[in-house]
Amino acid sequence: MFDDFIFRAFAAGIGLALITGPLGCFIVWRRLSYFGDTIAHSALLGVVIAYALNFNLIISVFAVSCFIALSLLFLQRKTFLPDDALLGLLAHSVLAIGLVLLGILSFIRIDLMGLLFGDILSVNVTDLMFVWIGGSIVLVVLILIWRPLFAGTVNLELAKAEGLNPDLANAIFTVLIASVIAISIKIVGILLITGLLIIPAAASRNLSSTPIQMAIISSIIGVACVVLGLQSSMIWNSPSGPTILAIALGVFILTLLPLKKLLISKKKIELNKR
Amino acid sequence: MDSLIELKNCGVFRNQRWLVRGVSLKVSLGEIVTLIGPNGSGKSTTAKMALNILKPDEGTNKIKNDIRISYVPQKISIDWSLPLRAVDFINLVRKHQTSEINDALQITGIKHLINEDVRNLSGGEFQRLLMARAIVKEPQFLVLDEPVQGVDYPGEIALYKTIQEIVKRINCGILLISHNLHVVMSQTDYVICLNGHVCCSGAPSSVIKEPEYIKLFGKNIDPTLALYKHDHDHEHLPDGSIDNSKKVQ
After folding, report:
1. Among chain A residues, CA nearest to B94
2. What are phi and psi of B200, to 5 degrees?
3. B99-113 pLDDT, tens digit each
4. DSSP state letter for A123
5. Could you tell me the pTM of the whole model?
6. Chain B residues whose beta carbon lies within 8 Å of the beta carbon of residue A158
7. Residue of A nearest to B117 (CA)
8. ipTM of the complex, rounded to two decimals
9. Helix, strand, or coil here: A139?
């Protein structure tokens, strides 16, 4: 079963979508979409280092991502620049360093398209283990820090005043984002991972009325997009990452249709009849 | 330590200036301390030191160990991307039993809104929700930062009545921040008037006589005026001064 590359592709994609669901919700709630992009851009440096040192790709990208995330926290405290300027500074300078290194180390041959847009059919058993074991750890940690992280998202000072530690939760959350981006490279690619984090969460927002509901529906939508997207990419012979995201956009547009309103107004009419 | 919290000569220094300096205050169980002062006078900063959200740059802030603290912050805005019902908001920091939540919402008078999305609440309803959240597990130390802000006069009176109700039911120490002296004074034990530093302080009856207070708010505050509170015969301007132009002749 694990020998079948199509099975591996589906297993990896579904595993990833299950984690990006709730994490993506926090990215939307906390307005961190550009942060996801920054980490993803810096992933190229991790890839180059992995190839140069003949090291595991996912661990290398994870290490670089964590370093970038911590640098951001440091810069936020040291400078008066707004967050988006700092993120732009980090994203593009680290991307540039990655490209410079890639040019210098001319013996490295990287499938750039696969890196940018994902090459899900090349997922091997090790990658699959990273997705499912790493992903499970990410989910468990997220559940453990849910309360301080969520309370801090709603109001940082209130959470602090009443004895939670939202700062620690934020730092851990940053590491979780870094790890998800590291394990997602082969599946959707570094250019598109932010899309897989945000679009299902955004679609889910249109359908849900509580935070936990939004996180769960976001996972379900993500899984549906991965399954449909992979099927389509095989039929059309299109790259997997972009196809998954195109499908996700379609789902998002569907959720904009006033389905909920129709349901509610029906209920109201029924109530009025009584 | 018999007081719940104690600030000793505390100050916060930010961006080359002191936001507030030399503040000392104590809150004990069953006591209401009210902070008043114009905008930017350091009331919220002082409250944040009392809650240990801000570490003082000079002086010490002591908070008694293992006390239940509740905080009603001054400004809170819920992002549109967050689906959040009133009940989810109450369970934000700790999960509570539905019966406890219902009781708290009953006291603040918005029990019917338990499943309402918080962004659909009016300003007054949201302040009541903030208060319900703060009292759901009887706190020992309660900080209310301008709990009546953004609420019209009738709503303000109703909210103060709710606070009185809370005070009657729960034995806790309260640090109340207010821009409205008259209403607060009838219930408060101790008033501290801030404007970057402590201008004056004392029991409610004495504070109005302090010359520094009169300098800040004008001498038109007549102690008897308190009896006619919310009579709309004067207006508190954003800088803390009082506009008497609307006074009925």
Report:
1. A147
2. -165, 160
3. 999 999 998 889 999
4. -
5. 0.83
6. 71, 73, 76, 92-93
7. A209
8. 0.82
9. helix
